Automatic annotation (TrEMBL):
TM ranges: none
Gene Ontology terms for molecular function: intramolecular oxidoreductase activity; oxidoreductase activity, acting on paired donors, with incorporation or reduction of molecular oxygen
NCBIfam families: carotene-cycl
Annotated spans, Disordered: 1-41
SUPFAM superfamilies recorded: FAD/NAD(P)-binding domain
Protein name (Swiss-Prot/TrEMBL): Lycopene beta-cyclase
Pathway in which the depicted protein is active: Carotenoid biosynthesis
The entry's keywords: Isomerase
Family designation: Belongs to the lycopene cyclase family.
Record field: compositional bias (Low complexity): 16-27
GO biological process: carotenoid biosynthetic process
């Protein structure tokens, strides 16, 4: 579940860069008002309202236009051909959260890094939510723009759980600016280009960029997100379906008329209620079989991020269904969207095959298999894994040791996918397979029991920090505490995934 909390949602950066918003209605723009620490985005007013097609927020167009990060002194790649300008220790392709964090950490250890991205200063498009206790220990609390001391889960109309765990929205602009600043002071060089091809020799590789530039390095890291062309996945899956699940969600940052019903001191992690289906019976059967829930981050009485989410589906739930369910839900809750400030389509592949280990290009981030297979969370994990990966890279390419070619690839890949991490991932994949088999009632029973677990276990599960032994203990406790129908679900629906997991764990230990 993108966690079960999938949630990836977003909102306006608490300090929205000076965004320019295209106008939508013929009304005058509202006066700026404080938003977290930032003014509410202003709106120009030269459009006319279109006749409603859906009679809901789906008729509204997102108004915000992302502004680039302001960073006048970023060290750009020098195009003058010379060994110094074209030869690096490490080239990291992609300046998303994963690529930039790894560039920051590797360069901090004295390794020469070049970061290549078509737009290194573009603002990141996604809104990232996370648990505060994941970001704080990494010294990244200054990159959060809104926190909620508690989270709420509505299991159904009669059962609600209040989770005593603080949640946050990451400030994309602050996090990116911080990583760029650290990269710049550590000597990272930035190249604005798209990488087209990678060629390997015994001890180094060359990347060919779309502007004709060629750059060399001992190690190439692909941090291009989910759609990578440069990474090969486990051979086993070439002849079989990839069997990944997908989290799909539609999110909006909305200004609402007359306020919203959410407490400002709690974020809504999951709302599994379906009373809105009473008015829209044609949506009910689909939702009963493949349920979606509402995720919400309330910022101000009239400003909220709302996201209807399918935690995991295979094949992917149609995006249109997600949007129609969201419209029905908001209508039922009396939430009237006045303006859509931002819109987010979320599609996250989860739990597919791991990359083939080792291979000549290292993967990091969305393409590396590190996405939580049963929640879809990645950002905090990638921030936490980067120092570990940087240590391995610096051991090989730092000043004292020069390990290159196959031994280098072997070490970096095995540094990311240790036997323990692979086994733990098998377990999280089992969680995903279980969720895929549950209908709405089963899903409710599951989360009812899950959030009753000792917080150590459910916190650890959602944050990928339980050992295999702890994960086994979690399952036993979950089974022991579950209701009888829930146990029946597990016994009748999960034997196949369970056998697969045990088989894969056995292969892993041989
Ligand atoms: C809408 C959405 C919301 C999400 N919300 C959350 C959340 O709330 N919490 C959470 O933990 N996770 C969330 N995720 C999951 C995950 O954290 C994000 O997908 C995250 O952006 C992955 O980071 P990344 O750096 O690996 O890849 P990306 O952020 O996708 O960055 C990849 C970068 O590589 C560049 N690139 C691509 N191809 C090339 C090329 N050929 N050459 C050079 N550069 C290239 C791209 O331009 C981009 O800058 C969300 C995902 C989505 C899609």
């Amino acid at each position: 579940m993108a966690t079960p909390l999938p949630l990836f949602s977003q909102l306006p950066a608490s300090k929205p860069p000076q965004q320019q918003f295209t106008q939508f209605t013929a009304t005058a723009p509202p006066p700026p008002s404080p938003l977290f620490s930032s003014p509410k985005p202003a709106v120009k007013t030269h459009r006319t309202r279109i006749q409603s097609k859906f009679g809901s927020f789906l008729d509204l167009k997102p108004e915000s236009v992302p502004e680039p990060i302001i960073f006048p002194d970023l060290p750009w790649h020098d195009p003058t051909p010379s060994p110094r300008s074209s030869q690096f220790d490490v080239i990291i392709i992609g300046a998303g959260p994963s690529g930039l964090r790894l560039a920051e950490q590797v360069s901090l250890r004295g390794v020469r890094v070049c970061s290549v991205d078509p737009s290194p200063l573009a603002s990141w498009p996604n809104n990232y939510g996370s648990w505060v206790d994941e970001f704080e220990p990494m010294g990244l609390s200054d990159c959060l723009d809104h926190t909620w001391p508690m989270a709420t889960v509505h299991i159904d109309d009669t059962r609600t759980k209040y989770l005593d765990r603080a949640y946050c929205r990451v400030n994309r602009t602050k996090l990116k600016t911080k990583l760029l600043t650290n990269c710049a002071s550590n000597g990272v060089v930035f190249k604005s280009a798209k990488v087209w091809e990678i060629h390997h020799r015994e001890f180094d590789s060359t990347v060919a960029c779309d502007d004709g530039t060629e750059l060399k390095a001992s190690l190439i890291v692909d941090a291009t997100g989910f759609g990578t062309p440069f990474i090969e996945y486990d051979n086993v899956y070439k002849t079989k379906p990839r069997n990944e699940g997908f989290q799909i969600a539609h999110g909006i940052l909305a200004e609402v008329e007359g306020g919203h019903p959410f407490d400002l001191d709690k974020m809504l992690l999951m709302d599994w209620r379906d009373s809105h289906m009473g008015n829209e019976p044609y949506l009910r059967s689909g939702n009963s079989e493949f349920p979606t829930f509402l995720y919400a981050m309330p910022f101000e009485p009239d400003l909220v991020f709302l996201e209807e989410t399918s935690l995991v589906s295979r094949p992917t739930l149609p995006y249109k269904d997600v949007k129609l369910r969201m419209a029905a839900r908001l209508r039922h809750m009396g939430i009237k969207v006045k303006r859509v400030i931002e819109e987010e389509k979320c599609l996250i592949p989860m739990g597919g095959p791991l990359p083939r280990i080792p291979q000549s290009v290292m993967a990091f981030g969305g393409n590396s298999g590190a996405v939580h297979p049963s929640t879809g969370y990645l950002v905090a994990r990638t921030m936490a894994l980067a120092p570990t990966m940087a240590n391995v890279i610096a051991e090989c390419l730092g000043s004292t040791r020069m390990i290159r070619g196959r031994p280098l690839y072997d070490r970096v890949w095995k540094g990311l996918w240790t036997p323990e991490r692979k086994s733990e991932r098998e377990f999280y994949r089992f969680g995903m397979e279980t969720l895929l088999k549950l209908d709405l009632d089963g899903t409710r029973r599951f989360f009812d029991a899950f959030f009753d677990l000792d917080p150590y276990y459910w916190h650890g599960f959602l944050s990928s920090r339980l050992s295999l032994g702890e994960l086994l203990m979690l399952s036993l406790t979950l089974f022991g505490n579950a209701s009888n129908p829930s146990r029946l679900d597990i016994v009748t629906k999960c034997p196949v995934p369970l056998v697969k997991m045990v088989g894969n764990l056995a292969v892993e230990t041989i």
